Amino acid sequence: MRIDIVTIFPEYLEPLNVSLVGKARARGQLDVRLHGLREHTTDVHRTVDDSPYGGGPGMVMKPEPWSAALDGVVASARPEDGPAPTLVVPTPSGRPFTQELAHELAERPWLAFAPARYEGIDRRVIEDAADRMPVVEVSIGDYVLAGGEVAVLVIVEAVARLLPGVLGNAESHQDDSFAPGRMADLLEGPVYTKPAEWRARPVPEVLLSGNHAKIARWRRDQAFARTLAMRPDLVARWERAAMDKHDLRALAALGVEWDEPSGRFRQSADGVEE
Ligand code: JD2
């Protein structure tokens, strides 16, 4: 996969040299190219922002440097890249970034990112880009950052680990909580390693038992309890067909029951309240 990133802070993207993404780049599985937005200005002050039409606080990123930078990226297409990248624009008003969207983006041969600063980019840049390439405005969560670079780091890492050959077998992602296909929307339970006792805290005995069926059952019970505690909103997404009779008994013990009228699992009236 090829990834182009246009930013006024290329140094903010240095973490892309490290760890999983850095290794994928070194192996040639990922071709990441950083572009300084200010290289596409024409005035002596290398201006990228101006005051907002209509008034209001803060500054808005000017269209001309962005169009010049994005035109340059598109013009650099090689046959294997396809005609144009999918442009990802981080913004607090974007489509929520989810594992499903990470899988969608991982299918594309070429992504370009336009992380903004200030109050964002002049709207016409997004509209103009959308005439020539797919554009996805994405939000990584319901909080406000000072700019889009951190969102790019998040999205690139989530996408890169889905690319063929980037994760080793030992760290395969087919069991991920939110992976499509498997039972989605179940959080991971706790994990342990040696020593078997540490600061008077023993590892749960079942994990040392060697009884793999019992271990699998315990882990699933822990996952149910964890999901109920941390993300009760996910319970409504659990599928009846994904549960066997042991699951139903474990869920009943947590106060979760199948509700036939709604066709959903729900916390029963006598269940544990928040
Ligand atoms: C950004 C800002 C608009 C106020 C460019 C914030 C984001 N989940 C997320 N939270 N915040 C962002 C994000 C992304 C890009 C920019 N700002 C600051 N913009 C209104 C403040 C400027 C994502 N993705």
Topology at a glance:
Elements: E1 2-7, H1 19-26, E2 31-36, E3 49-50, E4 60-61, H2 63-75, E5 86-96, H3 99-106, E6 110-113, H4 123-130, E7 135-139, H5 149-160, E8 197-198, E9 201-202, H6 212-230, H7 245-253, E10 256-259, E11 264-267
Parallel strand pairs: 1-2, 1-6, 5-6, 5-7
Antiparallel strand pairs: 3-4, 8-9, 10-11
Helix pairs in contact: 2-4, 3-5, 6-7
The structure holds ligand JD2.
Our estimate of the beta-strand percent is 15-25%
| Amount of helix | 25-40%
Largest sheet: 5 strands, parallel
Q: Any ligands, ions or cofactors bound here, and which?
A: ligand JD2
Ranges where pLDDT stays below 50 over 5 or more residues in a row are none
Could you characterize the architecture of this molecule?
With 274 residues, this protein is of the alpha/beta class. The chain is 28% helix and 18% strand. The protein has helices spanning 19-26, 63-75, 99-106, 123-130, 149-160, 212-230, 245-253; strands at residues 2-7, 31-36, 49-50, 60-61, 86-96, 110-113, 135-139, 197-198, 201-202, 256-259, 264-267. Helix 2 packs parallel to helix 4 and helix 3 crosses helix 5 (149-160). The longest helix is centred in the last third of the chain and has 19 residues, at 212-230. It starts with a strand and ends in a 7-residue tail after the last strand. The protein binds ligand JD2. Residues 90-92, 94, 116-117, 119-120, 138-141, 143-148, 151 line the site of ligand JD2.
Provide the descriptors you would attach to this structure in a database record.
274 residues; five-stranded parallel β-sheet
Task: Please sum up the structure shown.
With 274 residues, the chain is of the alpha/beta class.
